[in-house]
Specification:
Distance between the termini: 29 Å
Order of helices and strands: HHEHHEHEEHEHEHH
Structural class: alpha+beta
């Protein structure tokens, strides 16, 4: 309420739930849900050997890792959503059921589209201008690649986020960061955090860089310096993706 002027509980269960479709409210709501579910699991005695976050989810994982406080993370995630609405143009995203190399081969044929996420070996998300995304979906379909538009408000994790980065950096630079106390894999690099996540620069880059989720999951499963490799992966979020 302090950061947005609105009560999260009122947005979730009141008569204004339609606002949750607006990214300035979607992002803090996602963060709160993920953080709360994680606390519930921790309260049951479950301790993560290593954590991975997907986009907004990485903020919740960072708080659990001790990289930033809950209050600072909330300020950061609220600013992230608000500045996207205020300073960036609306765009589209699409999921292509194809390897990232195959999708990269299509991109030179359509301007204004970038890789936004690699979610699985055959699940690549692209992001960009509305007309360009529509053209890429047509092109992919012609080549026998299943492609579908995603329901989004903006072209997240793409160069279209550039106009908000300076303003977001001001907020990110006012946040206190600490070394991680739990292992966490960066979805920006796809590698185990080596301290880079405890910096404002990381979270600014995180806004527009692609989410290397598939790489991060494989890295988490291959973590060898802990007592035993993880053999259970628990997804914490609003649905089973």
């Amino acid at each position: 309420r302090e950061e947005t002027g609105d009560s999260l509980l009122a947005l979730l269960w009141g008569d204004r739930t339609a606002l949750l479709d607006q990214t300035q409210f979607t992002q803090p709501a996602l963060f709160c849900l993920e953080y709360s579910l994680a606390q519930a699991w921790l309260g049951l005695g479950l301790k993560p050997a290593v954590m991975v976050g997907h986009s907004v989810g990485e903020y919740a994982a960072a708080v659990l890792a001790g990289i930033m406080s809950l209050n600072d993370a909330m300020r950061l995630i609220v600013a992230r959503g608000r500045l996207m609405v205020q300073l960036t143009e609306r765009g589209d995203m699409a999921a292509l059921l194809a390897p990232i190399a195959q999708v990269n081969a299509l991109l030179p044929q359509v301007e204004g589209v970038a890789i936004a996420a690699c979610n699985a070996p055959n699940n690549t998300v692209v992001s960009g201008e509305k007309a360009s995304i529509a053209a890429l979906i047509d092109l992919a379909t012609q080549q026998g690649i299943e492609a579908r538009a995603l329901t989004v408000s903006h072209a997240f994790h793409s160069p279209m986020m550039q106009p908000m980065l300076d303003a977001f950096a001001e907020v990110a630079n006012a946040i206190e960061y600490k070394p991680a106390q739990r292992d966490i894999v960066s979805s920006v690099s796809g590698r185990l955090n080596q301290g880079e996540m405890s910096s404002a620069k990381y979270w600014v880059d995180h806004v527009r860089r692609p989410v290397l989720f598939a790489d991060a999951i494989m890295q988490a499963l291959a973590t060898t310096h802990i007592d035993r490799k993880p053999d259970i992966v628990l997804e914490i979020g609003p649905g089973a993706t």
